[in-house]
Amino acid sequence: MALTDADVDHVASLARLGLSAEERARLRDQLSTILGHIEVLDRLDTAAIPPTAQVLPLINVLREDAPRPSLSRDEALANAPRQADGFFEVHAVLTGGPDAEEEAP
Amino acid sequence: MAVEAVRVDPAAGIAPGSALEFETVIGLEVHAQLLTRSKMYCGCLADYADAPPNTATCPVCLGLPGALPVANRAAIELALLTGLSLGCRIPGYNKLDRKNYVYPDLPKGYQISQYDLPLCAGGALTFVSGGVTRTAGITRVHVEEDTGRLVHRSEVGGEVSLVDLNRSGVPLMEIVGDPDLRSPEEAKDYLIALRQILRYIGASTGNMEEGAFRCDANISTRTRDGVLVGSKVEVKNMNSFRAVERALRFEETRQRAALSAGEAVPQETRGWVEDRGVTVSQRTKEQAHDYRYFPEPDLPPLDADAAMVATVRARLPELPLARRARFAAAFGLGEGDAALLTAEREIADTFEAAIGPEATPGEARAAANWILNDLMGLQGQRGLPPHVLPLSADQLRDLLSALAGGEMTARAAKELLPQVEPEELPRAAAARLNLLSLDDTGVVDAAVAETLAAFPAAVADYRAGKKAAIGRLIGETMKRTGGRARPDDVRRRLQAALDADG
Ligand SMILES: [Zn+2]
Questions:
Q1: Which of B95, B160, B237 lies nearest to residue A91, judging by beta carbons?
Q2: Averaged confidence pLDDT in chain A
Q3: Given B57, B95, B164, which is nearest A71 (Cβ)?
Q4: How far apart are CA B47 and CA B34, in angstroms?
Q5: In which band, very low, low, confident or very high, does the pLDDT at B502 lie, cut at 50, 70 and 90?
Q6: Confidence of residue B6 (pLDDT cuts 50, 70, 90)
């Protein structure tokens, strides 16, 4: 399956990746090869097989609703490149919206 | 729904007075926080309201590599209970899926939700709107997890966003409604009824201000003849029932005006801006939602089998609408009073426990009046939450029996109520405050004599045949006993005195 540059750009933008022209061309070819490899599976006749979401023979693995200790804040923030006042700090998102707090899409 | 007039700019081309018959189509999506102690896929505390930022997190809800989620049984059961209370089908086999998108409040880069096989499907919500009983379809109920919270801050160097992940992984259910609602009022009444059910079954606090009950709306407009059809607009950021009604009313008007003026209503997402009373387009970059759902490999599928459904169904209480109808029929209460009494499960429980199973309609109505007038009045003055009355069922029962037995007058009870201590029985409080009915005939007789002396004109009127004049004398005598004499006793003594010496 041959991906187009537009396909690669779309996937890159969903992953918030900026690609140079050279990277895009290389990834386009690599991803096309990977998809082509997987396409082999299309040769199998799966008409009689129900869609499978999980290969393990498990169902209803649930835990009881019992709280357990959380990490300390210092531990939680330990790997954060930037932090402020106990928060993770990131580049501004969706500034200028109607509210100070934004909900995710 | 006929629309009498459409407010449009005459310059926009529609002849003044032309009557277009519009129809509004609304469907609601509700996200409700499930009332569990721990989060959806980890053991962190789910009640993040008062926790300082990032103090209720662990590798699972921080999305650290290698952490494995395990689903919370209570969350699954509460969502199932919700589905059953809405008459949903429980398909049995269902699964969890990854919904992929990149945003700083979503540390894993995906939200664990349910895509094509939800926990519950195809129910209905019956509610009362404008005095009419309506039914709206429920498309599905599924479980998912909340995101973190973002706070935006301006700094010297520019703008930054701060991320608090306490809310990350808190269990939510999404209740998707069919586009069966036809007006903003119906939308509001649907939400009120849905929230009431969730509170009755203990699935959610339904607290909108705290974000435990959130609503997005899809609203579109068309003319009845099908000539003008607008696209579906999604409205977000509505944080109260009133906001939902106002935002949808604004959209209804905006969309009708656009269609009347020959303009298109484009498909878009709009945000409600409360203080300006308008919706504004939230179109950022034109990017089709492409969530690339796929089955969650870290969580086995679920099977809500017959045994699980039966266990959960056994927890279903009598639901608000049924209880309201039963109260109205069994106790002769008006629809309005029955609705108020059953709006909160705890209040309906207090009412029933206080009057007992053998109550006569008269006793029930008396109890209802005390709750609806006096106790709810006091509840408001004290700023108590809507489901908390100032008296317990035991206290209310004691008060009602003291009133019925004449140990206390209604007037004394009204004075007493604000002074009853927590867990103190009203009879004991009345004794403490000297508000029990007067049994001392000497005091009552003295008050009668004083009144007769003070109001000779009323006495003369009564004796001249204007028997109604006794009302004034009863009131004055009661006043002289501080409201503690029994009115029927006072009447008898007054009548005896008036009829004796003439
Ligand atoms: Zn956690």
A1: B160
A2: 87
A3: B57
A4: 10
A5: low
A6: very low
CA distances to B40, B405, B465 from B360, rounded to whole Å, are: 47, 15, 38
**With contact defined as beta carbons under 8 Å apart, do B43 and B57 qualify?**
no
Burial B143-152, CB ≥16 within 10 A → b, else e: bbbbbbbbeb
Kindly list the distances between the CA atom of residue B331 and the CA atoms of B250, B321, B346, B363, B431, in Å, as whole numbers in the listed order: 41, 15, 18, 9, 32
Q: Domains in chain A and their CATH numbers? A: 5-43 (1.10.20)
**At a CB cut-off of 8 Å and minimum separation 6, what does B44 contact?**
A67, A68, A70, B38, B56, B57, B58, B60, B61, B166, B169
B59/A71 CB distance under 8 A: yes
d(CA B148, CA A93) in angstroms, rounded, equals 14
**Complex confidence, ipTM:** 0.87
CB-hemisphere CA count at 13 Å for B477? Answer: 32
Residues 42-81 of A with CB under 8 A from B: 53-54, 56, 58-73, 76-77
Contact B44 A86 (CB under 8 A): no
Cβ of B236 within 8 Å of Cβ of A103? The answer is: yes
Of B138, B120, B193, the closest CA to residue B27 belongs to: B138
Neighbours of ion ligand 1 (CB under 5 A): B 42, 44, 58, 60-61
Distance in angstroms (rounded) separating the CA atoms of residues B81 and B63: 29
Q: Report the chain B residue with the minimal C-alpha distance to residue A15.
A: B102
pLDDT confidence band for A100 (50 / 70 / 90): very low
Which two three-digit tokens encode residue B62?
């921080």
Per-residue model confidence (pLDDT) at position A82: 95
- C-alpha to C-alpha distance for B23 and B16, rounded to whole angstroms: 20
